[in-house]
TrEMBL record:
The protein's name in its UniProt record: Heme biosynthesis operon protein HemX
Keyword Coiled coil: yes
Originating species: SAR86 cluster bacterium
Xref: InterPro entries: HemX
Coiled-coil annotated residue ranges, if any: 58-134
UniProt cross-references to Pfam families, sorted A to Z: HemX
Taxonomic lineage from the root: Bacteria, Pseudomonadati, Pseudomonadota, Gammaproteobacteria, SAR86 cluster
Keywords (A to Z) from UniProt: Coiled coil, Membrane, Transmembrane, Transmembrane helix
The keyword Ion transport appears for this protein: no
Segments passing through the bilayer: 37-56
Length: 374
């Protein structure tokens, strides 16, 4: 009697144990397959929607195309019927030449409309061609005007370089560029301007270029030479030292001729005869020769500064004053003194700021040309 009562308990325990145990491998595979199928279905849904949309559009287009084809067929049939009717009317008119009043006002109106439309088309064609020609002419005119204005600007810059900076090379280059710009403009009115430019260019090319660097170096060489030149004080000192070395007692004779000869010999031994252009104001005091040489150097350096500043007046004044000081305080009878004086005279004769020709003619002509082109 105990076995039948235990059977339900055993079944209940088995069911609990089955419920507690994990799922079998077959159920796992089924779940994975279901997940994959769900993912595929989710991915396929947009594609399916796109295919359906494309199919719907295709069907819509096909229906529209069919409607258009049907409408075209109907129009073709109507046209065929109209042609057949027209031929029939013409044939009837030929067979029965009876004066029939036909209302052809619509035809005449249509012909009038056709002729007016054709005339409008011809007018529009002419207007289009005219606009194209105007565009081409306008482009060429703009190019001409731009090149002429460029030449005017280059001439102005060349004149500034020439008058303000005395830059002859830059002015010649800019004149050539202005001539090329006028040539590129293609205008027939630039001949006189180009002729003036050619004339002024020839004048500038014949102007001698001033070697400022060479003049500066020559002045610098003069500064060095003034430090080695003999001044009057040094000549006197040399004479006194030489007289002390060569002094001998003078024998004075008793006769008159001997006295005169002895006196002349004595005077020639203590005096140095030198011819002056003008009488010096004063002999140099001992030690003043250094100050004189420094002043000469400063005056020559002032001439160098005037050369760089293109100040011809200051340049001439400095060199003239340097020459006056040399003639007054230096020994110019020597070879070094004569060479120094000659170099100073040559430098004084140089005009460091020569008057260069102005480009007035070409600038005036191109101003008139630009005014006439506007």
């Amino acid at each position: 009697m105990a076995e039948p009562t235990e059977t339900p308990k055993i079944l209940e325990e088995l069911s609990k144990s089955n419920a507690a145990n994990p799922k079998s491998p077959s159920s796992r595979q089924k779940n994975k397959a279901l997940r994959r199928f769900g993912i595929v279905v989710i991915l396929f849904l947009p594609i399916l929607a796109g295919i359906l949309f494309v199919a719907y559009q295709q069907i819509t287009l096909q229906s529209q195309l069919a409607a258009l084809q049907l409408e075209n067929q109907q129009l073709s049939q109507d046209l065929t019927q109209q042609n057949s009717r027209l031929q029939q009317v013409v044939q009837d008119q030929l067979n029965n030449p009876v004066s029939i009043e036909v209302d052809d006002s619509a035809i005449r109106e249509l012909e009038t409309n056709v002729s007016s439309v054709g005339q409008q088309i011809r007018q529009m064609t002419l207007q289009i061609s005219e606009l194209e020609n105007r565009q081409q002419i306008g482009d060429s005119e703009i190019n001409q005007e731009w090149k002429i204005l460029e030449a005017e600007y280059l001439l102005g810059i060349a004149n500034q370089k020439l008058q303000l900076e005395s830059d002859l090379a830059a002015a010649v280059f800019l004149l050539g560029q202005a001539d090329q710009a006028l040539l590129a403009s293609g205008s027939n009115n630039v001949f006189t301007v180009r002729e003036a430019i050619a004339s002024e260019l020839l004048i500038l090319q014949n102007v001698e270029v001033l070697d400022r660097e060479g003049i500066y170096l020559r002045l610098n060489n003069l500064v060095l030479q003034t430090q080695a030149i003999d001044l009057l004080s040094s000549m006197r000192q040399n004479f006194e030292s030489r007289r002390g070395d060569d002094s001998q007692p003078v024998q004075i004779g008793t006769d008159t001729a001997g006295i005169i000869d002895s006196s002349l010999e004595f005077l020639s031994s203590i005096f140095v005869w030198r011819q002056w252009d003008e009488t010096p104001e004063a002999m140099l005091a001992p030690g003043q020769d250094v100050l004189i040489k420094q002043n000469l150097s400063l005056m020559l350096e002032q001439a160098q500064l005037a050369l760089l500043m293109r100040d011809n007046n200051l340049y001439q004044q400095s060199l003239t004053k340097s020459k006056d000081w040399l003639l007054r305080y230096a020994v110019i009878d020597s070879t070094a003194g004569q060479a120094l004086t000659l170099e100073l005279n040559q430098l004084i004769d140089i005009d460091i700021d020569p008057l260069l020709p102005a480009l007035t003619q070409s600038i005036s002509l191109i101003s008139q040309l630009t005014a006439s082109e506007r």
